[in-house]
Specification:
CATH class of the largest domain: Alpha Beta
Radius of gyration: 20 Å
Number of helices: 10
Distance between the termini: 35 Å
Number of domains: 2
CATH architecture of the largest domain: 3-Layer(aba) Sandwich
Number of strands: 7
Largest sheet: 7 strands, mixed
Keywords: Methyltransferase, Transferase
InterPro entries: Methyltransf_11, SAM-dependent_MTases_sf
Helix content: 25-40%
Strand content: 15-25%
Oligomer: single chain
Protein name: Class I SAM-dependent methyltransferase
CATH superfamily of the largest domain: Vaccinia Virus protein VP39
GO biological process, one term: methylation
Order of helices and strands: HHHEHEHEEHEHHEHHE
Organism: Leptothoe spongobia TAU-MAC 1115
Structural class: alpha/beta
Amino acid sequence: MSYSIQNANRFKWSSITGELLSERLSHLNKYIIGNTVLDVGCGGGAYVNFLAEQGLEVIGVDQYQDFLQVASEAQYQGSFVQADAAKLPFEENSFDSAYCFDVLEHVDDRKVLKEISRVTSKRIILTVPQKDEHMEQFGLSFMTYRDPTHLRYYSEDSLRELCLSIKPENIKIFPEGYLSCPWIIEYFIDNDSENIDLGSEQKSEFKKYRELAYKFVIRKLLKRISYKKIFLGLVAVIDLEGFKPIALSKIS
């Protein structure tokens, strides 16, 4: 499947929909250093606009004109450039900070990260989708939801290995996109019900009993068990060589 506005809306890419994720805003507010910032793979530019409204000098780069047109029609603040993330049209150390949200899983990640580090002097913030290993232990997966344009998913180890390829000063990695166990159960119940071949009257009855079963599972069973937290994504905050380091962090 190719990149398109339709695909972006289907999978609710926040830079396109404009519905900014609170976790992502927190990452930007907490970790952006300096006044000049680059958004690599900016999509519709909503995060560029968020930072520009705070007075930062922000440039958003995306390869696809259709996405940049969204930013133009929304009259977002900041500057926008159509360019390949692997061939950024900027001099070395042009930006204090750069961020790259949900892009590396679509591209040659090592090549793109190396290019981002070339044009950035202090800090890089990355977000990537995490492998759903805990779900797969039970024969379950979110692959029906996963964006088919993704080339890969990351573990903490594989993300750290990628970050180390640019020889940084320090790396901080932590999870994002927490899913509660009740939500996961509801997700699978809903998806299973849609795939059952029933008439309209039977489906109505099935839906009623499905809701009763769901309430029983949530109210009676889940209160009696402990379960492992499941996160959809990982964040890496990278301090580049020569910049004041941040504390290392392991996922707990």
